[in-house]
């Protein structure tokens, strides 16, 4: 993937003006190409290990549930309701990330015995 894109990236290099000093400017595409080549193993790690997500965007996945809720119901009615939903959703998300039982943990939370 990276080798095929190299010809495209080289088009992003800015030609050096005659008589100028200093480092040769590469442009945005050239800088991106250099970073891709430098971190190639980390960028393409998801191809070797199925447990590595290809996008590494956990924050977007966490916000998705709020967007789905507002899409279905239209909006939250109160600020308090929004805060309560966010708090509960945060707890559920944390429990899932730690492979803990959501139902059991929420039951303990209601009883005042929540432990992580």
Automatic annotation (TrEMBL):
Q: Which domain of life is it from?
A: Bacteria
Domain Transposase IS66 central: where? 21-83
InterPro entries named in the record: Transposase-related, Transposase_IS66_central
Recorded hits in Pfam families, A to Z, give: DDE_Tnp_IS66 (PF03050)
PANTHER family xref list: BLL1576 PROTEIN
Q: What is this protein called?
A: Transposase IS66 family protein
Give the originating organism.
Fontibacillus panacisegetis
């Amino acid at each position: 993937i990276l080798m095929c894109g190299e010809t495209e990236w080289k088009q992003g290099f800015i030609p050096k003006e005659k008589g100028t000093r200093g480092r040769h400017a590469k442009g945005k595409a050239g800088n991106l190409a250099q970073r891709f080549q430098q971190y190639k193993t980390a960028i393409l790690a998801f191809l070797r290990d199925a447990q590595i997500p290809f996008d590494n965007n956990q924050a977007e996945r966490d916000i998705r549930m709020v967007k789905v809720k507002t899409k279905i119901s239209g909006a939250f009615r109160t600020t308090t309701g929004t805060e309560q939903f966010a708090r509960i959703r945060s707890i559920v998300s944390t429990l899932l990330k730690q492979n803990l039982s959501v139902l059991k943990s929420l039951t303990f939370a209601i009883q005042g015995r929540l432990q992580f």
